[in-house]
């Protein structure tokens, strides 16, 4: 594992953007998976103008690693947010986005493996140790791509409804790449910022590997980089 501690959110975002962009410059197909959420917002602001209208980056294909379907909508919450933060500003063509959704999840791993697997994944770290849709009590280390009940844990329904305009839009399940699928990715980069993430960062680095803290298994990955700002690293 590589640990990079930057001074602040801006510096952390610059480093994460640089690492992500660097993986794109290959003379072959590159398959990457990127995270939604608030943490990577600045990363994508930095990346978008570096990628937009660059035909020499048409070799890059994008995969979302989780999705919250929305009744009555063509795209789920994750893809909606990725469109807003990155795909639209960067003018990524639809042909280079391979969505995970309620129609494709049963064959998504087959598609990924058929093109050589995922080369790179940018992840966030949740306060409770979750990443992708792998929340405590929701998935297990042996899972690949799975459906998770919207009522899997006592607070799951509440967490999902926060992302919706109306409660009745909630599906009975959401989708996520499980730990086994994520661990197949050739390179992982995790980003975390702010004092609120400091306890999770400390637990990730010093705690035991267990399903109750889902991200703990990622410490076993042979090519993992953790990028923090000083506040997120303040308890180390």
UniProtKB/TrEMBL annotation:
Single GO molecular function: glucosamine-6-phosphate deaminase activity
Keyword line: Hydrolase
EC identifiers of the protein: 3.5.99.6
Top-level enzyme category: hydrolase
Every Glucosamine/galactosamine-6-phosphate isomerase domain range: 16-219
UniProt record, GO biological process: carbohydrate metabolic process; N-acetylglucosamine metabolic process
Keyword Hydrolase belongs to the record: yes
InterPro entries in UniProt: Glc/Gal-6P_isomerase, GlcN6P_deaminase-like, Glucosamine6P_isomerase_CS, NagB/RpiA_transferase-like
Protein name: Glucosamine-6-phosphate deaminase
Lineage: Bacteria, Bacillati, Bacillota, Bacilli, Lactobacillales
């Amino acid at each position: 594992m590589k640990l990079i501690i930057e001074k602040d959110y801006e510096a952390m975002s610059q480093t994460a953007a640089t690492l992500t962009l660097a993986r794109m410059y290959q003379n072959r197909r590159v398959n990457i998976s990127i995270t939604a959420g608030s943490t990577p917002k600045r990363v994508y602001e930095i990346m978008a103008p570096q990628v937009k209208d660059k035909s020499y980056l048409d070799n890059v294909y994008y995969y979302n690693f989780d999705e919250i379907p929305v009744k009555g909508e063509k795209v789920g919450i994750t893809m909606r947010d990725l469109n807003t933060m990155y795909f639209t500003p960067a003018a990524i063509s639809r042909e280079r986005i391979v969505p995970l959704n309620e129609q494709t999840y049963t064959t998504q791993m087959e598609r990924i493996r058929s093109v050589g697997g995922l080369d790179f994944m940018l992840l966030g770290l949740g306060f409770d140790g979750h990443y992708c849709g792998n929340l405590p009590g929701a998935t297990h280390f042996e899972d690949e791509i799975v459906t998770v009940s919207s009522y899997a844990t006592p607070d799951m329904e509440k967490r999902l409804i926060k992302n919706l305009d109306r409660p009745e839009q909630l599906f009975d399940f959401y989708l996520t790449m499980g730990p086994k699928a994520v661990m197949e990715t050739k390179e992982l980069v995790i980003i975390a910022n702010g004092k609120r993430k400091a306890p999770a960062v400390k637990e990730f680095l010093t705690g035991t590997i267990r399903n109750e803290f889902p991200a703990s298994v990622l410490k076993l990955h042979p090519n993992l980089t953790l990028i923090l700002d000083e506040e997120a690293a303040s308890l180390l």
